[in-house]
Write a structure and sequence with these properties.
There is one protein chain. The chain has 425 residues and is of the alpha/beta class. It has two domains: 127 residues, Tetratricopeptide repeat domain (Serine Threonine Protein Phosphatase 5, Tetratricopeptide repeat), CATH 1.25.40.10; 283 residues, Rossmann fold, CATH 3.40.50. The chain is built from 21 helices and five strands. Strands 2-3-1-4-5 form a five-stranded parallel sheet. The longest helix has 19 residues.
């Protein structure tokens, strides 16, 4: 169930498993993981502590405990746990995670001068981890370059005047860059009774694979889309909705679907060509805070997150994606609203009233209590703990604590700081 991201069910099964096998350390470890992913911090800590009693020599459990203590706000305990684990020697994978977690803990404790030393050490260890080193990171950059060359207004607007079947309408797409505020936005939207959010499910990737099956030639995505007629576009739209219904069944009801997959930003040309009538929400945040958060955060291995393992790599990938977005957004027929994470923090109601107005939905005061709606459910983002709390402003301008560290990446970030209006902040 964890493998299928069904963590609430995994949590229930985990509790059954430990009652059946109370001396099985793996069962308690899995229970701890499922509890953590659904923001049940105390139960996660208790399960991990029991796993350690049963398998005291397992280094991974010690690092996991440090991570769980950090999630629960027990930063002094996490610092001691992780520091002791590193001093005793850890395998590469556990050491990589321990350095990342220590950086996060030291940041919370205000020991800012020590943070980047651990982040750079994690970057040094990362190439030894096959789950990251085997990712097609360079191929992803090539795809972005191909998209930049291949998509133009003639392609994105080609089917803008076409009529499509009502059973395959255009969803809303929520995109941005990692750690930009898309998870906060998703949870606010999902708290509205007329909205259903699909959280980081690769529906568009599946449709892209189907396009390549329809046209197995080695051409790029844009070239293949140019060869499709209206029937081919309708086929892809219908396939998208079949996958949605296969995944969610009747859960949607009559609610508006918001497809939140943050890095669908890279595929927005494909999305606009197939869904020229879509609405797009693009969330931005100070590039310095985005890159800092990305570098500090443990991410699920993927072709995209493989770029976030080093400081320079993080800034370079951010610049590449924003350059693509700046190029493609004027070519889009989809209606688009762009807003800043910082504005949502400073004026929550004003900002999100504008978002709901854009979606054609009435304001519902319940969305202001989105954190209560989020608590206890699985959120497919490292922000799961943050969005289960009321709004806070400590993540705004966090980069100032690390201003000297931005000198090596200043040339890459400076244009975006200015373009997004953060040069006065």
């Amino acid at each position: 169930m964890q493998r299928f991201n069904d963590f609430p069910v995994a949590f229930d099964l985990g509790r059954e498993a430990v009652s059946i096998a109370p001396t099985n350390a793996l069962a308690f470890r899995q229970l701890a993981g499922a509890a953590a992913m659904t923001n049940r911090h105390q139960e996660a800590l208790q399960a991990c502590a029991q796993a350690i009693k049963l398998a005291p020599d397992d280094p991974m459990l010690r690092v996991l405990m440090g991570s769980l203590e950090a999630d629960a706000g027990q930063y002094d305990k996490a610092l001691a746990q992780l520091g002791t684990s590193l001093s005793q020697g850890l395998p590469v994978r556990e050491a990589f995670r321990a350095h990342k977690e220590l950086a996060r803990v030291l940041d919370k404790l205000g020991r800012f001068d020590e943070v980047f030393g651990h982040l750079h050490e994690s970057a040094r260890l990362a190439p030894a981890l096959p789950e990251y080193s085997n990712q097609p990171a360079a191929q992803l950059l090539g795809m972005i370059q191909a998209n930049r060359k291949g998509f133009d207004r003639a392609l994105t607007a080609r089917w803008a005047a076409a009529s499509f079947l009502p059973d395959a309408p255009a969803p809303v797409f929520l995109i941005g860059f990692f750690r930009s505020g898309t998870t906060l936005t998703q949870e606010v939207l999902d708290a509205h009774p007329d909205v259903f959010v699909a959280d980081e499910i690769g529906f568009i990737s599946a449709i892209q694979r189907q396009l390549h099956q329809i046209d197995p030639t080695p051409q790029d995505t844009a070239s293949k889309l140019r060869k499709l007629d209206a029937q081919g576009i309708a086929r892809l739209r219908s396939a998208y909705w079949r996958r949605v219904h296969d995944h969610f069944g009747d859960s949607l009801g009559g609610r508006m679907l918001v497809d939140k997959f943050t890095m669908n930003t890279i595929d927005i040309g494909l999305i606009n060509t197939i869904f020229p009538d879509a609405k797009v929400i693009f969330v931005v945040r100070d590039p310095r805070d985005v890159c800092l958060s990305c570098f500090m955060q443990l991410m699920v291995p993927s072709a995209a997150t493989a770029h976030l393992l080093s400081w320079r790599g993080t800034a370079a990938f951010y610049s590449c994606v924003l350059d693509w977005w700046t190029h493609v957004s004027p070519l889009m027929t989809a209606q688009c609203i762009q807003f800043r994470y910082e504005d949502a923090i400073a004026d929550f109601e004003g900002t999100f009233r504008g978002v709901f107005r854009f979606l054609g939905l009435p304001w519902d005061p319940a969305v202001a209590s989105f954190h209560r709606h989020t608590a206890g459910k699985y959120v497919s983002s490292p922000s799961r703990a943050q969005v289960a709390q009321p709004l806070y402003s400590s993540s705004v301008a966090r980069w100032r604590h690390y201003a000297p560290e931005f000198e090596p990446v200043a040339d890459q970030l400076r244009p975006w700081i200015a373009a997004l209006g953060y040069d006065q902040h």
